[in-house]
User: What shape does this take?
Amino acid sequence: MRHRIIIIEDEADIVEMVRYNFRKEGFEIESFSRGREGLERLRRNPPDLLLLDIMLPDEDGFSICRQLRADPRLKELPVIFLTARGEEIDRIVGLEIGADDYVVKPFSPRELIARVRAILRRRVRPVEPADVIEIRGLRLDARTQEVTVRGNPVELSPLEFKLLHFLASHPRQVFSRERLLDEVWGRDYAVTPRTVDVHIRRLREKIEAQPDNPEYIGTVRGAGYRLLAEAPQEV
Ligand code: CA
Assistant: This one.
């Protein structure tokens, strides 16, 4: 899979050099010269990694990085700062802003690519975007949004699909209602944790042979929900 990189940098020469070299190495790259546009794009469509200049015409790189770290969907996004000055380095190295690495201008594209690769390699991806997930007869296809249970198609709403896909992407892991709201609904929606229960119930009615005795979506009392990787024991 091609990795997608976003660079926010107002120096055209650097952007050009980075675009050229990263494309040559098989990366997808998007560039923004202003912080606010870049941030908007990051929120709409998070990349695999961000290259972030510090001195930008509108908002500085530190402030952008802080906003990312406060956003549940972007707080894990790897950030490499592109920095020019010693005092900037001191602040990055302090790392209270949560950068993953930095390079000092002028840098060689080869060095930057090596650092990007190192970070992407060691990073644990929160969501592995597999196209098709199959767990004990439950099959989800992210490309077509189709779901089948033992070969029988099931009609899900886009939100139900998203919820099921999120759970199925992390089998066995327990997610609280709040976390599911963040991951599936996003923070903008005025919904309560009860909303999650309602949707889980609807999902079970659609995919479970016995919704009261689920074989796929398990309840973990006091903690939340998870996708059961193994069939529950017969009682
Ligand atoms: Ca700059």
